[in-house]
Amino acid sequence: xxxxxxxxxRGGWRxxxxxxPVVLVATTMVACGSSTAAVGxxxxxxxxxxxxxxxxxxxxxMEQTLSDGAQRTTIAFDALGFLTGNLGTDxxxxxxxxxxxxxxxxxxxxxxxxxGHNTDFLTKASLNMLTVLTADQRAALIALAKNQVTSINDxxxxxxxxxxxxxxxxxxxxxxxxxxxxxxxxxxxxxxxYRLDGQISYQRAAVMGPILAGLSDEQKAYLAGMVxxxxxxxxxxxxxxxxxxxxxxxxxxVMTYAGDMFSWYAGNVTADVYFxxxxxxxxxxxxxxxxxxxxxxxxxxxxxNITADMGNALLAALTPAQAQLVTSLVDTQRPALTxxxxxxxxxxxxxxxxxxxxxxxxxxxxxxxxxxxxYDGTIVYNLATNFAxxxxxxxxxxxxxxxxxxxxxxxxxxxxxxxxxxxxxxxxTVRNTDFLFGTGTVPTPVTTLPAATSTIAxxxxxxxxxxxxxxxxxxxxxxxxxxxxxxNNKGRVVATVTTTAKGKWKAVIHxxxxxxxxxxxxxxxxxxxVGYSDYVKVRGIR
Length: 542
What we know:
Elements: E1 13-15, E2 28-29, E3 39-41, E4 47-49, H1 62-66, H2 68-84, H3 87-90, H4 104-109, H5 121-132, H6 135-171, H7 183-213, H8 217-224, H9 248-266, H10 269-273, H11 286-291, H12 306-317, H13 320-327, H14 329-351, H15 362-393, H16 396-410, E5 413-415, E6 418-420, E7 423-425, E8 457-458, E9 462-464, E10 469-474, E11 483-488, E12 493-498, E13 504-509, E14 514-522, E15 531-532, E16 536-541
Parallel strand pairs: 9-16
Antiparallel strand pairs: 1-5, 3-4, 6-7, 8-10, 10-13, 11-12, 11-14, 14-15, 14-16
Helix pairs in contact: 2-12, 2-15, 2-16, 5-9, 6-7, 6-9, 6-15, 7-15, 12-16, 13-15, 14-15
């Protein structure tokens, strides 16, 4: 899972010399843990910054994230990435930043052994969680992954629409008759994207919550030996054999679920709400700038002070007027950030109902996530606009200085193409982005809902024609109260049943003479489209 990319894949990693940019624009990416540093001006008015001390374990809170100092250096680090990178670096985005209401970032940022940003952290958390789960519980996560991969990837591809528009802005490639981005269009598109994130989150909670609520005393005792302890004290365990047959995307999803389940179990709403300073405004390449050396490098620890140090170095390289375009964003985005905290609190509270044996309201989550997306849309609109203004005013000497800072941070790492999350890919085809500048046709939001699925099995493969057979399974929706229909191979409904706890269902039928196939039809919901189980065959004999 934490091998975030492979040099064997197309568009893979390679080290290259950083060429002089056509336009100085790049994406920024940092591991969470941005320290606050004192920022001031010297006698000439040039921004100067004092070195900041790395944060200690337990010090990363929402107060730290929202502090002016943390936000100032984070935004400046984003600017460094955006002003020295390209669309390929912009696209690098850790998979764990999608549907992140489980407290994993809090667990990582506050690890007592200060190993939260080591590349082994997620692996150890995930494998221990998978080890303690039963085979059936692991199977539920695998089924969820197979069901969600399409939506997860769709979210990643839709990010390219905003990133492409931001690149057009900084390159001066504006549609005729426009002068910049349309804030309302950016907010609307972001809202739709975050509603998809909400669907993914809701589906995960519906599966992970009941599993955690039903843990045995033995399972709880195992996890108790890990909760509150640093990563270095966690057991070293092997990967479950079930994961070996999964595709790359499915395995990444399962490992993400498992790590999130551990942090969700170990944490609380406060931990679920927490996000690091770099969580919002993720279209500017900062994750690549900071995480690239860690890809495929087991045991590598990402520095927690890179954001503060390089953000302050960026500000020091700018004129006071240029620096003001960056630092003023702290005040500009503050209302949106506080709004995001409120939304995350409500969403996290709603999703935790599944851990208490209650059902969450999917429509509430969807509405809240739309608001979340609008807030983030406001943030990224302002970041892109101001970064583009800085880019236009940079001198050749300043561009050289910023490229030097990038090389100091990243070395010669540069992507040959793009990324779907952290996996190298060829650049995808992106829809026309004129609508994000307030012109052209606004596309109809298209959200691809995954189909619901169900396991199915018969209690006997061969039964007498005078006997009845019981067929049962469990739907991927994982909730009680879902009405489902059992169909024969002619499409005729032979039984209608309602799911019980954890989405379990059972139907008793009287098979006709001969070979018959049956499958379950699962209705559409707000988070899934209509789906079916696989066929099961029952042979009636005289």
